[in-house]
C-alpha cells in the first residue's frame, strides 16, 4: 500500500456485544503517531460502551453511516469479533482485518479470507511471550471475566460473602472454590478475597500454586497416580490429563465442591471444548442456595449442567452460564482492547502505511492469512 492507510471501525453486531475495537483515546494516539492516517468510525459504533460520536470526531476521526461503503473503502478494519460474511466479502482485495478470529474452531472464516484475498490478523493467536504482553487481548478480557464471575457469584448467592459479627450472632464467611488458575481464575480469586470470602483454587499446573497463595487463597493439590510430565503448554495453558488422573482429580474436586458456597470454573483448552470438571453428582452434593458460575459456558461449559446464556436451578443450586462477560463491562473492556490493538499496530504501521514484517514472531503468529495463503504457524500446527 503506497497511500496512507484508511482504518475503519464498524459497530459490532454479535448478540450481547457492546464493545468497540478502538476508543476515542485510541484514535487520538494513532493520529498523534501517524498524522496522515485516515480513521473512520461507523456512526454509533461506540455508544453501547459509552463513547459518543462527538468524542471520536474531537479525537481526529471521521464518522460515516454507510456500513457497506465503509467496509469497501477500508485498508484495515478493526473489530472485536470476526465481522459478518457480507462485510468480509465486501472488502477490497489486499485489505486486512484485525479481530478475535478463533480460526481453529472456524475453518470457514479462514477459507473466506483466502478466497477474498483479505489478510486476517487474529488477536487470539498472538504468542504469549514477554514482548507481546501489551498486545495480549485474551488476558485483558479474561481478567474482566474473572472479576465479573466473582461479582455474579456474590450477587446470586443467598448468603453474605464476608464474615459478619452482629448482635444476633456471627455469620461465617462464604467459601469459594475457583477451578482453573489462569488469568481469569486469578482475578476471580483476588475479587472473591476482596469480598471477604475464604478462597481455594485448583489447577492441574503445580507452577501456579505460588500465584494462588500470593493472593491469599489455598491451593488444592491433587496427587497424580502417574507422571504427566509438563502439565502446561508452551502458551501457558493447562494440558488435558490422562483418564486415570482425571478420575483422581474429580475425586478431590468433588470433596471441595460440596463444601463450597460458590464454585467458579474457568478451565479452557485452546481449540477444544471446555473440559467437564463439575459433574451433576457434585452439584447435587452442594448445599441448597449455593452457586456455580461457569465462565467456560461459551465453549460448552466446565459443568455438566451449564446452559449457555442461562441461570438454572438444580436441586436448589444456581448454575450460571454467562456469555461474553467482558461485554458486561464494555467501557473498560473496550479501553483495554483498544490499547492491545494499538500495541500490535506499532509493529504493523510504518510511516502511516500498513506492513507485515513476518520476521517478527508476533506478526507471523497473529497473521492467519495473507495473499490468499495460510500463514500463522500456530494455526498450521493445530489445524
Offer a few descriptive terms.
seven-stranded mixed sheet, alpha/beta, Rossmann fold, 383 residues, single chain, 13 helices
What is Rg? 22 Å
Number of helices: 13
The overall number of domains is 2
CATH-defined fold name of the largest domain: Rossmann fold
Mean pLDDT: 93
- Cα separation of the termini: 30 Å
* Helicity, as a percent range: 25-40%
Q: Please state the overall shape, judged from the principal axes of the Cα atoms.
A: globular
Low-pLDDT stretches: none
Report on this structure:
The structure is a single chain. With 383 residues, the protein is of the alpha/beta class. The protein folds into 2 domains: 183 residues, Rossmann fold, CATH 3.40.50; 187 residues, 3-Layer(aba) Sandwich (Rossmann fold), CATH 3.40.50.720. Helices cover 33% and strands 18% of the residues. It contains 13 helices and 19 strands. A hairpin with a 2-residue loop joins strand 18 and strand 19. Helix 1 packs parallel to helix 2 and helix 6 runs antiparallel to helix 11. The longest helix has 20 residues. The model has no long low-confidence stretch (mean pLDDT 93).
